[in-house]
Design brief:
Number of strands: 11
CATH architecture of the largest domain: 3-Layer(aba) Sandwich
CATH topology of the largest domain: Rossmann fold
Strand content: 15-25%
CATH superfamily of the largest domain: Toll/interleukin-1 receptor homology (TIR) domain
Distance between the termini: 31 Å
Structural class: alpha/beta
Strand order of the largest sheet: 8-7-9-10-11
Helix content: 40-55%
């Protein structure tokens, strides 16, 4: 709670609903993208925009993290500058020029309802909001990347001729080359919609398999489970496992029944820099190997619980 009657969010400058009581702190609720976030800050946080170089440099990133629901899991704790530094280090967001370009391209792609459709940009969203959502530092930076997408032929852009908005995007169409590039992005790398599922293939694990597949489907991902894949005759199972792990966005590793393959596959995924979600039934976790016990697991008692917990984890950590 806090004594200070805060009017706007220090991360987004959006209006807030202050929470007032006797604690010497700043506390308020800010609504972003139809979700309410509870923010607790030390009483000097209003000075960060002027006095703290780290905060000033990364304020646009804090806005985007809030908007994309990549904020702190526990919103009851007071946020200090050190917490913000840790958040920046751990959060998943585009940093390199290529990551920014791909993220922008896939965002523009998602707005089309059919191939070849011309999308007209809404001025209020493009000029004042889109650059913030996509982790750009300014509208000029966003427009630089839009112009590059047009130059390399992934979009056909239509720029404003009005002197007040000259050079800004008015509308666009995803090109044929752009559609093919989108398929490549969705089939491999960090934008892939594929998830490698490492698990025991015992008959007892069918409810677990179904729960994982359902959770992935509901969050927009497609599972790769090696015994359900058609393997070419000239490939070994190990070749297929490694090839599919490289294509996937992330891995779910279920350690129930402690298959040796799950240890190998999850370790390979981690070595490739991919995120791994570890799961195990409560009964089986008692017998887990000592080297995986320290890892954060989803421990479940039922398949329904596993599905719900996986959906929440994927929404918070992967998407």
């Amino acid at each position: 709670m806090g004594r200070i009657n805060q009017k706007k969010c220090i991360f987004t400058d959006l209006p807030v609903k202050p929470i007032i009581d006797d604690l010497d702190a700043i506390e308020y609720v800010v609504e972003i993208n139809r979700k309410k976030h509870k923010i607790k800050l030390p009483s000097n946080a209003n000075k960060w925009s002027n006095d703290d170089e780290f905060f000033k440099k990364n304020k646009n990133i804090f806005f985007a993290l809030l908007f994309n629901n990549k904020w702190f899991n526990n919103e009851n704790n007071i946020i200090e500058i050190d917490n913000l530094k840790e958040l920046i280090q751990q959060a998943d967001f585009p940093i390199s020029p290529n990551q920014k370009l791909e993220n922008l391209f896939l965002t523009l792609l998602a707005l089309q309802k059919e191939d070849g459709q011309k999308i007209n940009c809404k001025k209020d969203i493009y000029d004042s909001l889109l650059w913030k959502i996509l982790f750009f530092k300014s509208l000029n930076e966003l427009n630089y990347y839009v112009q590059y997408l047009d130059r390399i032929g992934l979009i056909e852009a239509y720029f404003c001729e009005n002197k007040d908005r000259q050079g800004l995007l008015e509308g666009y169409r995803i090109t044929f080359d752009g559609l093919n590039r989108a398929i490549e992005l969705h089939e491999s790398g960090e934008h892939s919609i594929l998830c490698f599922v490492a698990m025991s293939f015992k008959s007892e694990t069918k409810p677990i398999r179904d729960a994982i597949k359902s959770a992935l489907s509901k969050t927009g991902f497609r599972p790769i489970i090696i015994d359900e894949e058609n393997i070419d005759s000239d490939k070994t199972i190990n070749d297929e496992i490694i090839a599919n792990l490289k294509k996937c966005n992330f891995c779910i590793a279920d350690f129930s029944f402690h298959s040796n393959g799950v240890y190998f596959e999850s370790g390979f995924a981690l070595g490739q820099g991919k995120k791994v979600i570890y799961t195990c039934s409560k009964e089986e976790f008692k017998n887990s190997h000592f080297d995986i016990r320290p890892l954060q697991h989803i421990i479940y008692e039922t398949a329904v619980q596993l599905e719900n917990d996986l959906i929440n984890k994927i929404e918070a950590w992967i998407k």
